[in-house]
Amino acid sequence: MHCPFCRYDGSRVVDSRTSEDGLSIRRRRECPECGRRFTTTETASLSVRKRSGAVEPFSRDKVIVGVRRACQGRPVSDDDLAYLAHKVEETIRSSGQAIIDSHDVGLAILGPLRDLDEIAYLRFASVYSDFSSLDDFEEAIAELRAAHAERGAAEA
Q1: Helix or strand or coil: residue 19?
Q2: What predicted TM-score, i.e. pTM, was given to this entire model?
Q3: Alpha-carbon distance 51 to 103, whole Å?
């Protein structure tokens, strides 16, 4: 780590703290050359490998844009979408991989979206899972009904 004041190549960590969201570390550093202190923020990079093989940084905004189309006309707020994107990122980060396939990002979206709005879930799943017939929709709806029945039985 270069000192931003004297450009000395080296510093001593004085204090480290995890951010509130747990996604970054704030470090107070001191330069042994000039004695001045400065702060750094460290985050783990997370990248997505697309079907084409290209790798790009993970973007919550891209998750929101993709899901927003499925939620069009549904009672879903921007805050709901931001929270969904946050949950998706947490899920992906918990895998421990620095590069994740775009397919796995889609899988990580399906669960929280189903909990948020089932119609939006069906819309997203029909495109993402490449539904090709009514049978695919019927199967997805049957799974949703079974989940409702399990929740109803657990509440009784």
Answers
A1: coil
A2: 0.68
A3: 8
